[in-house]
Amino acid sequence: MKSTQFELKIDAKVENLSVIADFIATTMRQLGVEEGIFEVQTAVDEACTNIIQYAYSGKGGTIAISCELQNDDFVVIIRDSGTPFDPGSIPPPDFEAVLEERRIGGLGIYLMRKLMDDVSYSFDAKKGNELTMRKRLTRVKT
Amino acid sequence: MEIPEKKIGDVDIISLSGRLDAYCANDVERKLTSLIKANQVRIVVNLEHLEYISSSGLRVLLSALKEVRKQQGDIKLACLKPYVKEVFDIAGFTKLFTILDTEKGAVDSFSGSIR
User: Fold this and answer.
1) I want to staple A112 with a disulfide (CB 3.0 to 4.6 A). Which of A43, A48, A81, B106 is the partner?
2) What is the DSSP letter of B104?
3) Could you give all domains of chain A from N- to C-terminal order, each with its CATH number?
């Protein structure tokens, strides 16, 4: 049986980040998932912020988010048609660096990877960017 | 974001609330920059009512911290909610900032430090 899929299409604007966070929380609760909501919200927020600020360079576009349960995973797929951007190409922050040398970038992608169990990216000339993030659940209410 | 501000002695206290994401990060950056420009570099940021912080928020706090430390000041954080604290931990920011349980504790921790 295919699980229910929830979708949100929204303008790529920073003022919509709270709408996206609400969508994630509502969707997870509707699917009976009570754990990890903050973590998924943060990972999705970071991914969408990158799309708004880098893929679309703040010029706007559309972000399409779809969520579903696949076995024990809560899966979020985020699509955009901005500049291709592979989060895997960004090195993690240097945690040993002293304050003066601590770089400002790379933190959002690092958080996405830490908060989710799997993050993968693909690009297709027709479909654009597709980021898939999975969160493994320990218990799902039915 | 509305950012209430008060002063106790020579310590400036600002309170953040709601979500500190890429949308609100500029408001907080503007507030901190205006304090630093006015040479007010002993700052407490009360996070009691902050529900959420993303890397955009962390970034703003980190740049401000670098700036005030250059001027022998500091930014101390107070009253972090558990999830906000978790994000600070994961990002390795708990090592960079002094974090206190109460606003008073954060203000008091400035006394004795030389400006």
Assistant:
1) A43
2) H
3) 5-136 (3.30.565.10)
Question: What is the 8-class DSSP label of residue A82?
Answer: S
Task: Flag if B69 and A99 touch (Cβ within 8 Å).
Answer: yes
The tokens of B109 are what? 């921790």
Q: B94, B63 in Cβ contact below 8 A?
A: no
What letter does residue A88 receive in the DSSP assignment? G
B14 touches chain A (CB under 8 A): no
The larger pLDDT score, comparing residue A35 to residue A89, is at A35
The answer to whether the Cβ–Cβ distance between A104 and B96 falls below 8 Å is no
Global pTM value: 0.92
Report the alpha-carbon angle B59-A92-B33, nearest 5: 10
- The 3-state DSSP class for residue A99 equals helix
Q: Which domains does chain B have, with CATH numbers?
A: 5-107 (3.30.750.24)
ipTM of the complex: 0.91
